Known about the structure:
The protein has 149 residues and is of the alpha+beta class.
Amino acid sequence: MASVGAGSAIPATRPAARSQIAYVETQARVHFKDITGLVQKAVTDSGTQSGICFLFVPHTTAAILINENDDQALQKDLDEFLKTLAPRDASYHHNDGNCDAHLKAAVIGNSKSLFVEGGQLVLGRWQGIFLCEFDGPRRRELRIKVMPD
C-alpha cells in the first residue's frame, strides 16, 4: 500500500457512475428523434470528464442510432431503406400489426456506447444520436449511464 508523504498530492475523488431515466415523446409511427442534447446534458450533469456513456432503450419497437444529424433527408432515406427490408404490409408470422417495427429495431439495435472526453460526448463532425421510433407515437424510456474512467 502506498503512503502519502509530505508534499504529495492527494488524488481528487472521481465522480461516481450516474444512471438516469429520460422519457422521450415521439410524434409519428416512424420518427427519428435527435436526442444528442439530452444525452450530452446527462454527461455534463454527471461531472464526468473522461469515461463511457451507455444508452439503452428497453423497447422492442424502438432503437438507438448514431448517424448524420445535419440533413433530415437522410432520415427519410433511412426510413425508405428500412421499409424495403421490412415492409409494414408483408405477411409475417408475428402478425400483430407491428412486426415490421420489431424487425427495424432489431436491425439498428437498442443500445449504444460512446466515449466521453473533456466532459463531451465523442461524436464525429456530422454525427448525432437518435431515438428511432418504429411503432409510435409513444412515450419511450431512455436509460443513460455515465461511467467515469
